[in-house]
Every structure is written in structure tokens, then in C-alpha cells.
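Quick one: structure for this chain?
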Amino acid sequence: MKRIFRAIAAMSLAVVGATVVAASPAAAGALDVTCLPPSSNVNSYSPPLTNQPQPVTASTTALYGPCTSVSHPAITSGSRTATVPLTASCLDLLGSGTLTYTITWNTGQTSTITSNFTRTVVGAVYEILATGTVTAGVFAGDSVVTDFTGPSTDITLCTLGLGTVSSVYNVGTLEITSL
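Got it. Here's what it folds into:
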């Protein structure tokens, strides 16, 4: 009788163990690089944005770091810059869109990223949240998430017609994860 009980108990444990293994989620991708604050993004506008569309020159400087990477340990920081002429107003600082940009890492390697972003104001916070994919260069094929926040006072005043926006400064994080 004891042998039968032991056999049933062993079979029960085997079934429970198999169920636990079968129910385990698939392994998530590995974090290839993460960049923490004071990682920053500054957009400058000349002339300053108003709540009416006008021709402006927009300049972007993004600095990423400190960064850590298990797969590429020499990568500790990165940057990107761009200057583009466009017609815009401070109302264009809200909403969503798609952006392609290239980060140059401190090693000289590059990552070209295409991401979808949303820009929102909640209370006194302006947030730019983006998700996308590394389309070329180091980390190609990996997914990307960025989350940058900053004060929204100038943007809110501008959208109400009570001020202008000459620049927007945000700090945040960048994560690149293998799929």
C-alpha cells in the first residue's frame, strides 16, 4: 500500500511539475543597452514657436548616458543631432508620429532607429514616449523604448496663446532589447 501511495504521489508531482513548466511564459528578450538619466533631449526653435504655424528651424540634440550594455560593454554613451527647417507651431509639440534617427555611440558604431511616438501634457509634465525598432547598425532587429519627460509650462502657455516656446528640455531613459 505504501508503494502505491508513493507511486501516486510521484506521478502527481511529475504532472504538477510538467504543468508548471508548460505554463511558464516564454523568456523575454535580453536588455542589450540601457541609458539612464541624465540622458537628455533638447529641441530648440528659431524663431520661437507660437500657437500659429510659421517657418522655423528646429535643432535637436540628444545625449544618452550613462549607458550600460552586456552585449557591447564598450558602449557607455551616445548622441544624435539634427537641424531641419519646417513650418510648425507649439500645437505640433503634442500628438503622435513616426521618426527615424541615428544614434552614434561613443565607440563610433551607429544604430538607426524607427519609432512611433506620442507627446502628451499631463498636469505640469510633458512626456514623449516612443517604441520602435533598430533598423540598421549595432543592435539591428532589437526593439527600442524611450521615455523622456520635462516641464510643460511653456508648452501649455503657448497653446493658450499666452507665450512662446524657444526650446524643450527633457530627461529620460532609452532601452534596447533583443527580441
